[in-house]
Amino acid sequence: MSNNNSKSEKGNSPSDPPEEMSFSHLIRKGQPLGEGAFGAIYRVTDDTTQQEYAAKVMPTSALAAREVEFLKQQTHPNVVVFVASFVEEDSQILVLELMETDLLHYLHTKGYSTGDDFA
């Protein structure tokens, strides 16, 4: 991906990504982690630091901009950490803390019943 049309915003991350991090550094896009109505999430690796993240790729929109602003303000331990945001061509890319489990798995391991709605 070209870095020429990239704009980035850096968030507060415990892993301290490089100051000049760009999506171009995340060249090793790994497996898809999930897909929803608003975009897809991929496991990505920063080529400079080898740090793994989750990258949510969605169309550039007012909704995407609101999500970036919301995540930048969150500091709760139960909310995924926002690392950076990039606009490349027609896509908004949110780089987030990589979670090794999902909510459904977590609830099952804690013994909570999730009902048939979540299956």
Order of helices and strands: EEEEHEEH
Structural class label: alpha+beta
- Averaged pLDDT: 76
Report the radius of gyration as a whole number of Å: 15 Å
What are the segments in which pLDDT stays under 50 over at least 5 consecutive residues? 1-8, 12-19
User: Per CATH, which architecture?
Assistant: 2-Layer Sandwich
Tally of separate helices: 2
Strand content: 25-35%
Largest sheet: 6 strands, antiparallel
Intertermini distance: 36 Å
CATH superfamily: Phosphorylase Kinase, domain 1
- The quaternary structure here is single chain
Number of strands: 6
Helix content: 10-25%
Features:
119 residues, alpha+beta, Phosphorylase Kinase, domain 1, six-stranded antiparallel β-sheet, 2 helices, 6 strands, disordered N terminus
Description:
- By secondary structure, the chain is of the alpha+beta class.
- The protein has a single domain, classed as 2-Layer Sandwich (Phosphorylase Kinase, domain 1), CATH 3.30.200.20.
- 16% of the residues lie in helices and 34% in strands.
- It has two helices and six strands, in the order ββββαββα.
- It has helices at 62-73, 103-109, and strands at residues 7-10, 28-36, 39-45, 52-59, 82-88, 91-96.
- It has a six-stranded antiparallel β-sheet, with helices on one face.
How would you summarize the topology of this molecule?
Elements: E1 7-10, E2 28-36, E3 39-45, E4 52-59, H1 62-73, E5 82-88, E6 91-96, H2 103-109
Antiparallel strand pairs: 1-5, 2-3, 3-4, 4-6, 5-6
In short:
The chain is 16% helix and 34% strand. By secondary structure, it is α+β, with helices and mostly antiparallel strands. Mean pLDDT is 76; it is low at 1-8 and 12-19.
